[in-house]
Design goal:
Elements (H helix, E strand, L loop, with lengths): L6 E7 L6 H7 L6 E6 L6 H7 L3 E4 L5 H11 L5 E4 L11 H9 L5 E5 L12 H18 L10 E4 H7 L8 H11 L4 E5 L15 H25 L1
Parallel strand pairs: 1-2, 1-4, 2-3, 5-7
Antiparallel strand pairs: 4-6, 5-6
Helix pairs in contact: 5-8, 7-8
Length: 233
């Protein structure tokens, strides 16, 4: 199935040699380009990705957002950019559900909600579930948003992505995109997606330090954005 629009996919990846091939194999054949942004992997992530047809760009500066920004910069011109993680926790074959509302001109940003979808037991840690709930609750308070998740599997219109000017280079990437979309008046949608236990150990929720840093960063982005919004009012 091809939607008649150019679709680019960005996959930030760090030490995902056991999973990246499966992710790439499941990406629909109507996707026009796939960029794997290798965030300093010490394993065979890059070579496995290339063997599965992806174009690999290197981003040695660690950080989820830094990898995403590098991937965006490497994309050929396209109409829609899809982001998906390289750990095979998301279901690439559900990508059509994310891009369809944009193709139909019903949305500019579509988030895949793991908590509303088929969430496998243990796929999200208790701290992830609480952190997502808190972040979405704060977005509802400050911007009347109706998000239920900060899911990494998401699609956005390319010109909208360029307009909001993403900047966060770390764990605040997902919430920054959602807040900037809200503040810019973009049409936001959310669809349920499936989510399974990742292959390998999470760089965020797999350690106490990672969980604390991610939570702090997300709350900092929300706080700074809320303060900036007051000034706009």
């Amino acid at each position: 199935m091809h939607f008649g629009h150019k679709i680019g996919v960005v996959i930030p990846a760090l030490n995902e040699e056991k999973s990246i091939g499966r992710v790439l194999s499941d990406i629909p054949d109507w996707v026009d380009e796939v960029i794997v942004a290798d965030n300093g992997s010490e394993d065979a992530t890059a070579s496995v990705a290339e063997a599965h047809g992806a174009r690999v760009v290197k981003q040695p500066k660690r950080g989820y957002g830094a990898a995403c920004l590098k991937g965006i910069a490497a994309l050929q011109p396209c109409d829609i950019v899809v982001f998906i993680d390289g750990d095979y926790s998301d279901h690439p074959d559900e990508m059509d559900g994310l891009v369809a509302p944009i193709i139909e001109d019903k949305a500019d940003l579509v988030i895949g909600s793991r908590v509303r979808g088929a969430l496998a037991k243990g796929a999200l840690t208790p701290q992830q579930i609480f952190g997502n709930w808190l972040a979405c609750r704060l977005m509802a308070i400050f911007w009347k948003a109706e998000f239920s998740d900060l899911g990494p599997f998401r699609a956005i219109r390319s010109r909208s992505l360029e307009a909001i000017g993403m900047a966060d280079e770390n764990f605040g990437w997902t919430v920054e995109m959602q807040i900037k979309a809200l503040r810019s008046g973009l049409r936001c949608d959310e669809i349920p997606v499936s989510y399974r236990e990742r292959i390998g150990v999470s760089k965020v929720s797999g350690t106490i330090k990672g969980s604390v840093l991610a939570g702090y960063t997300i709350l900092r982005v929300i706080g700074q954005s809320a303060w900036a919004s007051r000034g706009e009012g």
